[in-house]
Amino acid sequence: MILCGVDVFLWTPETPELPTQIGPFRLELISNRGTRVYPPPAPDIDLIDWPRVRFLSEEQVEDRQVDELLAELTAAGWVWTKSQKLYRKDGVDLFSQPY
Q: DSSP letter string over 56-94?
């Protein structure tokens, strides 16, 4: 099993505009209430102030790289409330996909 990414829940009333690359991670998606809102097009839904942003890496990453990503988001002024590491085993994602 390898660490390959992280889901970060941000506290913001709008869909955040984030860098598409931070270190080894690329911004894969932003979802709100389980529905993908980035990349566009986003469906017309009522948004809550707690979107999930998913950053993935093509290669295995280490805990410290997740910490660095979170520190960069914090330094940019984002308030994050929760993070969930994402794992892959034998090339299969061990995390769900949004709608």
A: E-SS---HHHHHHHHHHHHHTT--EEEEEEEEEETTEE-
Those residues whose C-beta lies under 8 Å from the C-beta of residue 8, and which sit 6 or more positions away, are: 52, 53, 54, 55, 69, 70, 73, 80, 82, 83
Q: Where are the domains of the chain?
A: 2-84
**pLDDT (tens digit, 0 to 9) for every residue of the chain, 99 residues total?**
999 999 999 999 888 999 999 999 999 999 988 888 887 776 677 677 889 999 999 999 999 999 999 999 999 999 999 999 999 999 999 999 876
Query: pTM of the prediction?
Result: 0.91
**2-84 — its CATH code?**
3.30.70.1570
